[in-house]
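Work Package 3 (structural annotation) set out to generate three-dimensional models for the target panel prioritized at the project kickoff. During this period the team completed the workflow that converts sequence records into discrete structure tokens, so that structures can be stored uniformly alongside our sequence database. As a representative example, we reproduce one entry of 369 residues exactly as it appears in the project archive.
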Amino acid sequence: MEELTKPDKHRLLAALRGKKADRVPNLEFVLMRRNTAAIIGEQCLAGVEERYRRLDTLWPARSDSEAADRSALAAYSCYLPPAEYGLLLEKTGQDAVCCTLSWKPKSRKPLSAGTLARDQEGIIRDRAELDMLPPPPVQAEMLAALDGYVEYFRKSNVGVGILVRSVLCNTYETLGMENFMLKMYDDPGLIEILFDRYYEYSAAITRAAAAREVDFLAIDDDICDNSGFLVKPDFIKAEWFERTRAIIEPFVSRGKPVIYHCCGNVERVIPMAIELGISAIHPLQPTCNDIYDYRRRFGTAICLMGNMDLAGVMTRGTPQEVQEDTWQHLAELSGGGGYIVASSHSITDDVPPANYRAMIETAWHFGRN
């Protein structure tokens, strides 16, 4: 049993390829502060925060606000230093670190309480304001941070992945959603300019990372809402598809798995993802996705990752209810491989630590193949 709780990248990689391993893996891209502190200890995490306050961190500043104090990064597990990240993996049985190398020009914050994050104001309004777009992170500095994790985990069974963004989400956050929709008709050339800027950064990162000892790529881009595509499917196919293909190509061509994160209803995205050579789809929010139907329809052509409900059992249920829901997912989805236990987004501070623990321990005990 002890071996089943230890990190093992081969377990994760098997699931991403639709194969069975010793047990179903569990993987979260992000645990926020509450659960991270519960796992590695408040004192340990406070020490990380203090080190980041002193700028003792692999991670470069990616905004003016981070230049003098990077302690806020410690609120997210994906920025833990390698040793502390390794401790988190040992205690959760998660098989890999995932280093966030994304260029995110604007943080997602709602305009006011009760509004959606995507309804925020943008950074720029039109072409005349393109010079106001913040510069991308320095590629060499981001890759140096990645190298620190690769080197630390080189002789272990821990996998190393990276997370980057494609082009749509950054573009509508740059312009603001309403303005983005208007510019789709009034100035489509501006949309292409922004698409290309974000594409060029992410493609350069994936080319460099794929040549390193990196095991998988995760790419995120919210191109859907709870009803389906945010924009016309023909626009997605014409403008988003090929840029995304080029971003992931360095990994696909080397046979390294690719996980695609897209919130919302992804029913019509899955065939497109399979065509792109994507290995897994995440996070499959249960409020708008029937994960069991997807398994029946698509088999193990794509690995299914997530679906443990952040709007329900994970945040509002009891540990027993989380255990039962996790068990149902395992019973119906893990038979032929190609399933990863995960939340329907990330482990936010709304998730009681006992509920997160119930989910992963159920995977250890009942996800055995």
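The mean pLDDT is 94.
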